[in-house]
Design goal:
By secondary structure, this protein is an alpha/beta fold. Helix content is 46%, strand content 11%. It has two domains: 13-126, Resolvase, N-terminal catalytic domain (Rossmann fold), CATH 3.40.50.1390; 142-202, Arc Repressor Mutant, subunit A. The protein is built from seven helices and five strands. A five-stranded mixed beta sheet has the order 2-1-3-4-5, sandwiched between helices. 24% of the residues are buried.
């Protein structure tokens, strides 16, 4: 949902709504935004499915916003999938572009004011928590893989002795994939070290 592609005078009020799946309904958000005086033809909305952040209506709206405009959302979390994305979006709009951001639930967001600073501070803490949580999960996954004898991260390279062993295994008729499995490296690594020899029979 969105207005036609026309020039947008400064000082206008726009709204943005987003849901994460096609099954969710936008009505509640649209009603909340309209209650703040936003005309229906100035409310843009996206139904974003999966993990993608490709939001065509947000891109159209963002292209119209100029200094002096006002953007209304039901909740700040509609401006991003993560707390960090919300902070970056609000900061870019308010501090860099002079757009006023107002949330029905959190109020007007002025990063230089007490309320705005508090709300963005809370989102900053959430962003830090998200980063730390991802790091902890990645570390736990590496530890679990190491306990099972699996290599994680970038594929291991062959050292000199491994390269010799790879040639021996290849000479015994093993495929590059089988050689890689035996040495704990990728098939591409075997090809890279053996060159044409690695691709002769597979």
């Amino acid at each position: 949902m969105g207005m036609t592609e026309t020039s947008t005078p400064a000082g206008r009020t726009f709204g943005y709504a987003r849901v994460s799946t096609s099954r969710q309904n936008l009505d509640r958000q649209l009603d909340a935004i309209a209650s703040r005086g936003v005309e229906p033809d100035r409310i843009y909305s996206d139904k974003v499915t999966g993990r993608t952040m490709d939001r065509p209506e947000w891109k159209r709206l963002d292209a119209h916003l100029v200094a002096g405009d006002r953007l209304v959302v039901d909740n700040l979390d509609r401006l991003g999938r993560t707390a960090l994305e919300v902070i970056e979006t609000v900061t870019a709009l308010t501090k860099k572009r002079g757009v006023t951001v107002e949330s029905v639930k959190q109020g007007e967001l002025d990063p230089s004011g007490a309320n705005g600073a508090l709300v963005l501070g809370m989102f900053a803490l959430l962003a830090e928590f998200e980063v730390n949580l991802k790091a902890e999960r990645a570390a736990a996954a590496r530890e679990a893989a190491a306990a099972r004898g699996k290599h994680t991260g970038r594929p291991r390279k062959l050292d000199t002795s491994d390269a010799v062993r790879a040639r021996e295994l290849r000479g015994q008729g093993l495929s590059a994939a089988e050689v890689g499995k035996a040495l704990g490296v990728s098939r591409a690594t075997v090809y890279r070290y053996l060159g044409n020899e690695g691709a002769t029979v597979d």
